[in-house]
Amino acid sequence: MTVQEMSQRDSRVRSVAVIGSPSTNTELTIDLLEEASGERLVGALTAFEAVQNRNSITSVGQIVGIELRNRWHEDSVFKNLIKRTGEIPPITNRQDTRTANLVVGATFRKAARGYEPEVLGMVPPTGTRVYRVDQALLDSLLEVYRSEVFYLGRAYCSDVMYPTWFKHFGSGPGGADEAYHLGVFGKTGSGKSGLAKMMLCAYSRHPQMGILIIDPQGEFSLELGGVRVGQQGLQLDKVVASHGREIHIYHIGDLQLDDWTTFEEMLISLRFFEQLSIPACSTDNARRAAEVISKSLKEKYSLDGLASLEALREALSAISEHRNAEYVYATKSRAQQLRERAQYFLDDEQALTQLFEESWKPICNLFAPGESRRRLFTHVGEEQPGIINMLLESAEDGRSRPAVVIDISRQGNQEFWSEELQRRILGKLLNILISQASSVLAHRRSANVLVLLDEAHRHAPNERLDEGSEAEVLRSLLRRAVRETRKYGIGWFFISQTVGGLDSEILKQLRILAFGFGLGMGTELERLRDFVAGDKRSLELYQSFRDPQSFPRRDLQEFPFMAVGPISPLAFSGKPVFFTAFTNPEEFLRANALEIR
What we know:
Elements: H1 3-9, H2 11-14, E1 15-19, E2 27-32, E3 45-52, E4 55-69, H3 76-85, E5 97-111, E6 114-118, E7 129-132, H4 135-141, E8 149-155, E9 161-165, E10 181-185, H5 192-204, E11 210-215, H6 219-224, H7 236-241, E12 247-251, E13 255-256, H8 260-269, H9 283-298, H10 309-320, H11 322-328, H12 332-347, H13 349-365, E14 374-375, H14 387-392, E15 403-407, H15 419-442, E16 449-453, H16 456-459, H17 470-484, E17 490-496, H18 504-507, E18 510-515, H19 522-531, H20 536-543, E19 559-564, E20 577-581, H21 585-591
Parallel strand pairs: 10-17, 10-18, 11-15, 11-16, 12-15, 13-14, 16-17
Antiparallel strand pairs: 1-2, 1-7, 2-5, 3-4, 3-7, 4-5, 5-6, 8-9, 8-20, 18-19, 19-20
Helix pairs in contact: 8-9, 8-15, 9-10, 9-11, 10-12, 11-12, 12-13, 15-17
């Protein structure tokens, strides 16, 4: 049965409006039928049929606003009557007219292989019937894309599952032939983490795509380790593993850093030199002291063998030498204080041991080998591949690339953690990833890696940072990453509680964005207005979202989202789309035919 036959069969049941005036090819004014006046239609997915270039077309869109007019009630004379009686029987209600705005999301043309995307380049005549879209109609229109369609939830105010697609960044079936960057935003409790996990499941279906998750909160490391976080209940680890992916979770202590420059940086950022009375603010002095220690140790020790009292004595002895102390401090008095402080530890065995256990050893352990430890990158010929190697290696024999989680959270690294260490490791990882991805491109191959960064506003804030600080360096690296790595085949997926708080340079590079509840005020609203190109009706619909935490029971909760960008085969026009995310994990798994092993 054709789409037209289906619509004619029960158009009297499904029709909710007719096209009115004024209308354009992107936004139509529709007049609601009387029998539909009591239905919940704002956000509803609707369709109409027309003829364009002698071909039958079907256009699908969402109703983004409804307006009630009764011109008699607007007259001042009748207003005086109404304020006394409350109504005028021949006029009140009966003379009401309801018009709505229908934003066209996609248009389809019947072709030999099914329905193909088309551009609505005309305006259908007034009186054209507009009807609700049901699942059968939607499945028929998207038959050609069935293998690519993924469902995150239902169309806003509808029982119809809203189709989305998440393609890998390479070529071939299911590929987009390019990388793009994504963002999910929403206040705490808006459902952004749940939506991000479902989107991660969508990308997990592509075996040729590597997945790297940078986890500053510890939520994803727990979820992929089999521990449920929050109320969603989605078995994320089992879904990801069901696609043949190995899941690797690394904490800071599981990473083996491997160059002397990074060792010097760790001595500075982890405040080893404060023990030698070099203040944290004296970065130039600390840097020169790190050079002295590094140079002295290179002559006798390998980088992975520094976690010993002998190595610490060697470092302190180097600092206590006259010429080295005067290199660190130009003033003789400060150089003498530094020498005396270093000599204090050399003369007091108990103080030396305490310095070793509390400061020196934890830093050196970051460079020590271990059975369960992994380098960020290894060169050809080395026995164990590094993390970046695993992500970028071509999938062989149909095997899936791994999903790697790097837990840089405080709770996941209680023995040794600081914001400086967190930023240093993330910066080191970014530099290696950018460098190696460019090498992959030189071999005419896409890296095809998705990098997910939770709590992105903490690492790339939209505020002034001290020039040269660790925070400013990291933000600059992230800016560089989103600008440069897309052409290498690396896409970034940012999750944040705020739009206004995330660096504006990064926001400009995002292609697909989903906005949950709670971003409708102040600078957040201004940012949203930019992303929807000033679409007033869409903003009003977004602002009407109900707080998910205001529902009296869990089973009644709704998690609505507004999305922009090429997230759906129904979003060819570039207009915002609205959907409500699944709250039942079993329903999500059934809708996408996901099997948990």
